[in-house]
Amino acid sequence: MTQTTAATATPLASAPPDATRVAVSTVIFTIRRDPRTDRMELALPLVRRTRDPHEGLWALPGGWLDVAESLEAAASRTLAETTGLEPSYLEQLYAFGAVDRSPARVVSIVYWALIRADEIPDAGIENTAWFDAASLPRLAFDHNEIVGYALWRLRNKVGYSRIAHGLLADEFTLAELREVYESILGRRLDPANFRRQAENSGTLIPTDRFRTGAHRPARLYRYDQDVELAERGPLSTRH
Amino acid sequence: MTQTTAATATPLASAPPDATRVAVSTVIFTIRRDPRTDRMELALPLVRRTRDPHEGLWALPGGWLDVAESLEAAASRTLAETTGLEPSYLEQLYAFGAVDRSPARVVSIVYWALIRADEIPDAGIENTAWFDAASLPRLAFDHNEIVGYALWRLRNKVGYSRIAHGLLADEFTLAELREVYESILGRRLDPANFRRQAENSGTLIPTDRFRTGAHRPARLYRYDQDVELAERGPLSTRH
């Protein structure tokens, strides 16, 4: 097999260390209610950089790949170290490797996950904060582009899968489900049409419980656990 | 941002070169007719390794990432160097990074593409050959697993997209289209049902031309070019 030798600044002849380094980053989406607008919004945690490059800017949680750990293990470890979050499952999103995305050459393998608001630890962590995905500041490196790609993938998934399940409690009203879809798609949906499509989807099971409160009682639904999460695929286990 | 320093065998204190190296590999699928069975089959090019590790075994086309080229440029370059193939578009498939997938630590960013048989240069290249994707020998590294994952992704795509378009000539009969689907899915499809679904899909345009030969003349169809290739997404351009 013809393999060219990567050009590096290191003059070792055999098995040269590579000038390219591998990092991992993670995009974690949750749904939360914005207290100012009372609307549901997609949010994600960011970490403020305390060193160059891009000191002071916000960045996705992440860090370097250790030579003795798998990509997903590195993503889980750096996510827990920087944010305290430990989602049960991380899916690989994409490998970002543009030559100029960092002062040094860094290939970042990006993972993503959805978590419910009740899975987020109450205690805040220094230099970590949650941001509305729809109105981010300028982030370090190409992290705005990475979040934009994750949002595009999420919007493409929401139409044909149970993606909202990862963001909702086990039981939810159709209005709550619609608000999740609205926050992902970034637009309002007609309540009557949404209700009809959801009831006909074959994936929701009505319970005999209701959400009561300021409004008319609303029936609670749950997802049919027999419907497989087809998008997980053969590589979904840690390896 | 908390970042741990990757453990390496290199004792440089600042900006240490990483013991992890980045490679690229490419899975190229085409459809060809097996002369023994007269059935269409999925095939892919492999390259025989001429050095350790795994000398003598077949492997996916690929090589090392150069520090000054993008991931997709590296995939295109190493594919052309090893097989002579130059598909117009490569899509990122997945990053494989298990710790034990190679004697040294190698993270491989794998790209894939579909090409039509008429896009393959006639002249063979030394140490390169095409293999039936359904009956591969033991490949080097984890390349059997990589091909298996690519096949799984292809089977998931074929149901809701124009994926077969990348494997067929511009005009084709419904029987040819069905054979492409059969070779991807690995099972026979009922001709009458397939014809009905294809005609009702809204993506095929009948032409006024027919394929003639040993059988009854069969109408030629083409894909509606106005239907966007939705799966390309915002990262489809070289970057």
UniProtKB/TrEMBL annotation, chains A, B:
Gene3D superfamilies: Nucleoside Triphosphate Pyrophosphohydrolase, Winged helix-like DNA-binding domain superfamily/Winged helix DNA-binding domain. It comes from the Bacteria. Residues 19-155 form the Nudix hydrolase domain. CDD domains: NUDIX_NadM_like. InterPro entries: NUDIX_hydrolase-like_dom_sf (IPR015797), NUDIX_hydrolase_dom (IPR000086), WH-like_DNA-bd_sf (IPR036388), WH_DNA-bd_sf (IPR036390), WHD_NrtR (IPR054105). PANTHER family: ADP-RIBOSE PYROPHOSPHATASE (PTHR43736), SLR1690 PROTEIN (PTHR43736:SF4). This is ADP-ribose pyrophosphatase YjhB (NUDIX family). It comes from Microbacterium thalassium. The lineage of its organism: Bacteria, Bacillati, Actinomycetota, Actinomycetes, Micrococcales.
